């Protein structure tokens, strides 16, 4: 189930979808997942999506809007979720990284291409 969630960081996954996919009652899925991970599947999935967002903010030149869209979030919702999780808006997070580093990071083209592939995944119907 964790792998299923990790493969779908480009969009929202609902508990109903997990129940149908894994053929369990939604309450049992939450109980089982929490027992093994200490969190709910939806919170786990959100943390994976936020980790992707932080990675994109750190290592790409994509705008905050582009990152939100690639992860299947509206910009206002993404900003709110990010602020709640990190204590600052996504743009401030990126600015703090630049200040801390004191220089721009030069990325290898293979990494940038990998991010573009990830960002394009949201255009597929069911990832």
UniProtKB/TrEMBL annotation:
The keyword Hydrolase does not apply. Residues 1-96 form the HTH araC/xylS-type domain. InterPro entries: Homeodomain-like_sf, HTH_AraC. SMART domains: HTH_ARAC (SM00342). Keywords: DNA-binding, Transcription, Transcription regulation. GO terms for molecular function: DNA-binding transcription factor activity; sequence-specific DNA binding. Pfam families: HTH_18. The keyword Protein biosynthesis does not apply. This is AraC family transcriptional regulator.
């Amino acid at each position: 189930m964790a792998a299923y969630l990790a493969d779908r960081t480009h969009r929202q996954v609902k508990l109903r979808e997990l129940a149908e996919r894994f053929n369990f009652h939604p309450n049992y899925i939450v109980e089982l997942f929490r027992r093994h991970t200490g969190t709910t599947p939806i919170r786990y999935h959100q943390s994976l999506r936020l980790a992707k967002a932080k990675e994109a903010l750190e290592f790409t030149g994509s705008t905050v809007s582009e990152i939100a869209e690639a992860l299947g979030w509206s910009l206002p919702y993404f900003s709110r979720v990010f602020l709640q999780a990190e204590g600052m808006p996504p743009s401030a997070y990126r600015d703090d990284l630049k200040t801390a580093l004191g220089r721009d990071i030069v990325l290898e083209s293979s990494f940038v291409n990998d991010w573009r592939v990830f960002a394009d995944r949201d255009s597929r119907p069911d990832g």
